[in-house]
Amino acid sequence: MKIIRARDYDHMSRQAANIISAQVILKPDSVLGLATGSSPIGTYRQLIAWYLKGDIDFAQVRTVNLDEYVGLAPENEQSYACFMRRNFFNFVNIYPANSYIPYGLNKNAEDECSRYDRIIQSLGGIDLQLLGLGPNGHIGFNEPDEFFTKGTHKVSLSEATTQANKRFFEKEEDVPRFAYTMGICDIMQAQRVVMVVSGAAKAPVVKQAFFGPVTPRCPASILQLHKDFTLVADEAALAFPD
Q: What is the pTM of this model?
């Protein structure tokens, strides 16, 4: 495990974008695993800026997103498909046919999950997976559990996760309670994993995940065992409480 200590959110975002841009420059047809939420937005903005300057080309890149809410159409403004268009895809030359996100309207969970795992397999796996860190240690929507779930699956979102996400919805009852998410095995099989974490509120879970035991009660802790994992965190997120 490698830890990059950043000064603040903007510095964290640039450091993570440096890693991703180097991946794409060295392997133009890279498969990037992408994340949503507030943490990676700055990273996407930096990549967009470099694309607009002509420093990076995404024409051959393929992408797979970590997760999607069950019940939301890709056109829904709160869907992760919409998030990706709004914060990244609309501003770079990643072809829509080369970007994959779980389909939240598929009511057959087994069918959707097996379909998504087949997509990842057909791409040859993920070269670089970008992650954020949930307040309860979740990665993707892999919530604390008694075991690590291997492949893409439908998950019931924890109360901590729904509370964290309710700020994006008009009413709390509008927050989806289920999601499709890549499994721990999908993430761990990525050739490289980069996590961005910012803010003092995340310091306790960073300490638990990366300086405590490996346990499914804190899903992110499994990354301690990854062959090429980099944590990019700002000083506040690394200022652990006593």
A: 0.94
